[in-house]
Amino acid sequence: MTVTPGILVLAGTPIGDIADAPPRLAEELATADVIAAEDTRRLRRLTQALGVQPAGRVVSYFEGNESARTPELVEALAGGARVLLVTDAGMPSVSDPGYRLVAAAVEKDVRVTAVPGPSAVLTALALSGLPVDRFCFEGFLPRKAGERLSRLREVAGERRTLVYFEAPHRLEAALAAMAEVFGTGRRAAVCRELTKTYEEVRRGPLAELAQWAAEGVRGEITVVVEGAGEPAAGELDAAELVRRVRVREEAGERRKEAIAAVAVEAGLPKREVFDAVVAAKNADGAAPAR
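User: That's the sequence. What structure does it adopt?
Assistant: Structure tokens below.
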């Protein structure tokens, strides 16, 4: 007897205000055969707030057990189960558990669908006041300073608006690193506690925002950063060229490669960037390295 595969449903959950829960969410929670939840305690609070009593089996599905639990859920899907995946807030798979399960379900030809819901990425982007026609989501930056600078350096010339998640206790360091790599005057917006009681959107240059964050910030944080402009040839002064080369060197690039990359970014001959670096080294009293 052939068993018809089930269906995997990714359900968006409120990022703050419970009233933002999509109407279909309550129905899916009540009827799913299996509910895979990032945090079963938060799921319990969610179902209570929505007045829902799940009829299906509830299992935990978080970063620590995602790899081990995925085969179990795929087996349930293969057996015809309707599996509902919910994370703590927002859409599953977007910087949350879910990607492995979706990929495994697709590989087994299991249908995957979604209950669209709130998204911190799109909400912050819309509120930022920055260009929204083209953007890219970069998730969380690395915790270590060197790795953080290296990751930022990879997108230093990105023209699209950038969106990041960040922990409140690392916000100051992240904004300071962005100011160092992208430039102190690059516009950004820090979106805090979106849709919650103490929602706040702070806009301004990166250096100004880093100084503000030094006072301490609490809550869920999403950072939106303006993309790089298109500098005309010769637009960047020597000091800025040197700064960009130093940022790349500190992130681990050899000087030769750093100079070449900055020259491409600025639309200048490599020799002009090299001469700026040599002049800065001579001014500092150090012999330039070749």
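The first strand starts at residue 7 and ends at 11.
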